[in-house]
Amino acid sequence: MTGWISIDRSIQNHWLFKEKRTFSKFEAWIYLLMEANHSKAKVPIGNQIVTVERGQRLTSILTLSDLFNWSRFKVKTFLDLLESDGMLEVKTTSKYTLITIVNYDFYQSEQGRNQHQNDIKPTSKQHQSNINPTSKQHQTNTNNNDNKDNNEKNVNNEKKKTTAFDFFQDNGFGFITSYNLDDLNYYLDSFENDSDEIVTASLKIAKDRNKVTWGYAKSILNTWLNANLKSIEQVRAFEKQQLESKKQNYKPFVKQSKEKTPKWLTDSTRETKTPEVDENLEKDREAFIKRLNSKWE
Question: What is the pLDDT of residues 252-278, one digit of tens each?
Fold first, then answer.
C-alpha cells in the first residue's frame, strides 16, 4: 500500500482518542510522531532554557507512562526498541527526556517523502551506507555529511547514565508523583556540583539501611545541605568521617544478670564438718566383738 495522509493534532481531542485504554506500540509511536515539534522552540526547565528543534519532543518517562497506561520500565524498553531500529533518538537527563524523530520530514510532507525516497534508492551506494541495520548512521538525515554522521554515532554510543529518577523508580521508593517530583528537582537544584550523583547517593544509603522511603533519603540530603557539602567528593568524605566517629564511640553493652549469686558460691573456702566420734558406741562395738570371738573359742 502506498500514499500517505496527514493527521491533525486535534484528533487527540476526539472521544475515540480520549478513551481510557492501554496503548498499543503502534498507538504510542503515532502519538510520538504527532507530538514532535513542527518548529524550533525554547522551553524553560528549572533554571535552564532547553532548545527543542523541529522533530523533537520534550517529555518524561513518567508522563508517557501515565498516558500510555504502561509501567515506566515498559516505556523505557519501548523507546530503546525504537532507538535500536533507527526510528528515534533519546536523550535522558535528571530533569527531562528529549525524543528526536529520525527523518521527521519523511512523515510530514510529500516533498520530504519524495526526497527521502530519492536518498535511499536501493540501487544507490548511498543506500547501503545510510540504512545499514547495524549502523547508527541510519538514525541521521541522509543529507548530512559523513563527519556529522560520525559525531552523532559517537554520541549515541556513549553509555547511558543512570539518573536519580531512574534509581528512585527502579529500587522500590514508589511512584514519582508531582509532589516528590518537585522535591527531587529541589534537591537537584540545591547542590552546586554533582547534584544527580548526590541525590542518587542518598537513595543508595537509604536502601542499604533498609529504609527505602523518600522521607529517609530527604533527611540524609538535609544533613548534607546543613553541612554545606557542595560535591560528591565532599559527601563521601563526610560520610566516611561520620562512620569513623561512630566506630570510635562504640562501646559494647554487657547485660548484667539480675539473679543473686548464692552466698556459698562466693566463699573462697567452705568449712568441712568433722564428724564427732561417739565414744560409747565404740566401746559397745569392741565389747560385742570380744564376746563374739569368745563364743568361738
Answer: 666 665 655 555 555 555 555 555 556
Q: Into which CATH architecture does domain 9-156 fall?
A: Orthogonal Bundle (1.10)
Please provide the CATH number assigned to the domain covering 164-249.
Answer: 1.10.10.630
Alpha helices, DSSP H only, in 19-56? 25-35
Range(s) for CATH 1.10.10.10 in the chain?
9-156
**Closest by Cα among 98, 94, 99 to 82:** 99
Torsion of CA 101, 107, 109, 115, to 10 degrees: 80
Query: For cell 518548529, what's the residue?
Result: 39
Nearest to 82 by CA among 26, 129, 135, 131: 26
Tell me the backbone φ, ψ of residue 285, rounded to 5 degrees: -65, -40
According to the model, what pLDDT value does residue 144 have?
39
Answer whether 102's CB lies under 8 Å from 86's CB: yes
Q: How many CB atoms lie within 10 A of CB 140?
A: 23
pTM (2 d.p.): 0.41
Kindly report the number of other CB atoms within 10 A of residue 125's CB atom. 8
CATH 1.10.10.630 residue spans of the chain:
164-249
Residues of the chain falling short of pLDDT 50? 116, 120-160, 296
